[in-house]
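Ligand-bound model needed. iron/sulfur cluster.
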Amino acid sequence: MRAFGAVSGIGEFAKGMGFTLKTMFTKPTTIQYPEQKRQVYPRFRGRHVLERYDNGLERCIGCELCAGACPANCILVEGAENDPDNPTSPGERYAKRYEINMSRCIFCGLCEEACPTGAIVLRHDFELADYDIPSQIYTKEQLLVPAAAPVSARQQVTSVGA
Ligand code: SF4
Ligand code: SF4
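Prediction:
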């Protein structure tokens, strides 16, 4: 009985060593973050941005549908009438104030789904950690893409909370 146990132990040992040797020659799954960054999936939902039209006008028309759709109640929109001589958006109204409390956001994407103009979009940036709650409240100025930014630059917004 004791001899059988010893043979069984050697078998298990060989099996474990075989697994160790096999993994020694396979490509590691870890990466050297933050120097190396993992490519996220195309449908990944990260940091929000407020988009513009190609002519520079803001897409947001201050309709508040995104705020109504948000299950975490973390969007605040205050709409205002556009100045006909110098409109901010193509509609009658625009978002005078737009804020997202990112500390409450669950990145469900329902705000993006609800938006009729494609203004609020979740991009791929995921480095959103900060040290206090006030820093997690992103203002319209932080969310709005720069007017002159080319479309390719808007795909990856890397400056977070700046
Ligand atoms: S992703 Fe979801 S939780 Fe976050 S702001 Fe949009 S609707 Fe709200
Ligand atoms: S982001 Fe879209 S849904 Fe939200 S207020 Fe602006 S236009 Fe309306």
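Residues 48-147 form a domain with the Alpha-Beta Plaits fold (CATH 3.30.70.3270).
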